[in-house]
Amino acid sequence: MEGVPVLLYVLSFPTHAVTDADCAAVIHLLQTLGRCGRSFKEYISHCGGERSVVQCCIARSPRVSCDSDLLLTSHAMLLEQCSGNPNSTTATFAALHLLLDSNHVSLVRMASQIVCELVSTKSPHYDARVIERIWDLVPTAITLLGNDSVKVQYDALELVHILLHDLSNHHALCTELLRWLRDAAVKPYGPIASSAVDTNDHISSDHNLPKTADEFYEVECFMHAKSHVVRICHCLDSILLHCPPFAATTV
Fold first, then answer.
1. Any residues with CB less than 8 A from the CB of 130 and at least 6 apart, and which?
2. Does residue 221 surpass a pLDDT of 70?
């Protein structure tokens, strides 16, 4: 285990000093060490292994995609570190938060997919001890639903459906989704507002609204095919069909 700090030191090298392939190989070595037993996982966490891997990915994220060897290897290593390592949840969860707070879609998706695998009872990486210690995932799912990336939104829907299996989440999910829907209905989001001027004539003619009408933005928000409102409406519809008892919460 004495070689772990050396491996982590290599991951801290600047991007021009070490290739992505070399970083992936180092992370794979860390993953192999972690598979030797729980004490090895705990030592890697004690040395800051998860954070080092995440920082390595962040440094290279502008040029790597979700299907790159570096991110795939990092995904596998972080997932295994989070599972079967209950004494190190502070370190592993901090690494996931660092990914979720990233501005890069590929890293946010990695974190959301890892979380889904950890909390889904159908996943081979499910760990009941993680469920007991993990943070409230409902706000996380709602935040991911509001991401500009359709791929991140899709991952958020997967997380929502997983959370539905726990009845204690139903009320919070209903409340947060309906609040988001209400807020989105009264003001435009992101590109919707900026595109409103360009589509003003089209919307006005279709809905008989004057260009100065306050309702214009509301109509545009609801009609925009890629708006958050439409996506969350689809999400609510899917949830109600997926879990009929949840419908009673919305009444």
1. 82, 83, 86, 89, 118, 119
2. no
pTM: 0.75
Under DSSP, the state recorded for 85 is -
Residue 93 amino acid letter: F
| Dihedral over alpha carbons 183, 187, 191, 194 (to 10 degrees) | -170
Q: What's the pLDDT tens digit per position in 45-75?
A: 999 999 999 999 999 887 778 888 999 999 9
Output DSSP code: residue 15: T
DSSP tag of 135? P
User: DSSP label at 169?
Assistant: G
Residue 128 near residue 134 (C-beta atoms within 8 A): no
Q: Where are the domains of the chain?
A: 1-128, 136-186+217-250
Asked if residue 24 lies in contact with residue 66, where contact means CB atoms within 8 angstroms, the answer is: no
**Rounded to whole angstroms, how far apart are CA atoms 11 and 23?**
6
